[in-house]
Amino acid sequence: MSGDRNKIIIVDDVKANLTMGRDLLKDTFEVYPVPSAQRLFELLQNVSPELILLDIEMPEMNGYEAIKRLKADNRYEHIPVIFLTSKDDETSEIEGFDLGAADYVTKPFSGALLIKRINNQLLIVQQKKRLLENQAVLQDYADNLVIKVRDKTTEVVDLQNAVLSTVADLVESRDKVTGGHISRTQQYLGILLEEMLQEEIYFDEVNPWDKEFFLSSAQLHDVGKIAISDAILNKPGKLDAEEFETMKTHVKVGVGVIRHMMSKTKEHAFLEHALLIAAAHHEKWDGTGYPEKLRGASIPLEGRLMAIVDVYDALVSERPYKKPFSHEEACGIIEQGAGSHFDPALVEVFKACECQFAQVAAENRS
After folding, report:
1. Which long-range contacts (CB under 8 A, 24 or more apart) does 251-256 make?
2. What is the DSSP string of 195-227?
3. H or E element, residue 86
4. What beta strand segments (E) does the chain contain?
5. Number of domains comprising the chain
6. At what angle are helices 181-199 and 344-365 packed, to 10 degrees?
7. Per residue in 204-227, pLDDT tens?
8. Which of 103, 156, 236, 308 is the most buried (most CB within 10 A)?
9. Are residues 267 and 328 in the same domain?
10. Up-side HSE of residue 33: CA atoms within 13 Å toward CB?
């Protein structure tokens, strides 16, 4: 049946050439002979051919002009065009290929050769189609794989956050003095981090961080308090020197807990920030902190950030042994600590966003 065969349009202004071409091809293809390029474009409104045989030397619109128009139209640009011409010079062939011709057949031609040339081009078209179909299948597979990986990653991150939150809640449930401290310090850290990125302070160090991991990890900064006795943890007054030394051990205990957690899983990137925060949040810029008495930039940036938010929250929060400081008083103490307790550059960042700290503190008091 003709409907099952490939459609070929022959364009030639010489009737004898059209008749010969039709007779040569009609047993193999569904052939549409047309006498001009103009008639070609009229036919294309109703027929979608697999290939066009196009004469070059025609009046009104020659083959070069016709192929330019074909290739400029996204409805027809994919149709392979074989030029039919009596010219056999190299320049004409190059010009035809430059304009997008698939092949170039010189008249007079044999039927067997022409059919072979046509079949070669149709095979290329079929191979391109299969390639595109395979690419579409592969792209669909890749897209689905990305979705699955993203969903699985989300599940893992949610699980990690749930573990961190549960452990942090367990620690905080024992500490009756600092209720809500973990949640507030996470919010303060988020404010500082955004301001740092905006001002490009320590930008090269902070920009690669996974913000979600960093803020989630901060929940474990006091995890070592799980080893501190209730008598010290919830003492309704200031700790004496011996009790304070015991309290200070929560840092190394916390580091040990986090290292133990990291040893149990290969996917522990989410704990790397937690380790640095827990280890360094009581270090001081001038080297008088604990437990390692680190100084200046040798203190991990995570610890220097937590030092500011930890102290701010302690200052503005009520304790059994003190009333809360006002936001202004807390800001003054932190500013005075620049260069001694705190990283001076981070104090400047704090000053730029301290009004947001005040808002968080007020919301948590209401």
Report:
1. 251/224, 251/278, 251/279, 251/281, 251/282, 251/290, 251/291, 252/224, 252/291, 253/223, 253/224, 253/226, 253/227, 254/220, 254/221, 254/222, 254/223, 254/224, 254/225, 254/278, 254/279, 255/224, 255/279, 256/224
2. HHHHHTTTHHHHTTS-HHHHHHHGGGTTGGGGG
3. none
4. 7-11, 30-34, 51-55, 81-85, 103-106
5. 2
6. 140
7. 999 999 888 888 888 888 888 888
8. 308
9. yes
10. 16
Structural domain harbouring 235:
175-365
Whole-number Å distance between alpha carbons of 245 and 282 = 13
Residues of the chain with pLDDT under 70: 1-3, 88-89, 148-179, 267, 365-366
Same domain, 126 and 196: no
What does DSSP assign to residue 108?
A: S
Residue 150 lies in a domain: no
What SS3 class is residue 174? helix
First to last CA, the chain: 84
Find the CATH number of the domain harbouring 32. Answer: 3.40.50.2300
CB 34 within 8 A of CB 47: no
Instruction: Quick: pLDDT tens for 292-315.
Output: 999 999 999 999 999 999 999 999
Torsion region of 338: left, alpha or beta (phi above 0 gives left; psi -120 to 50 gives alpha)? beta
CB atoms within 10 A of CB 264: 7
Q: Please list the residues that pair with 32 across neighbouring strands.
A: 9
Q: Are 35 and 21 in contact (CB under 8 A)?
A: no
Longest dimension (CA), the chain: 114
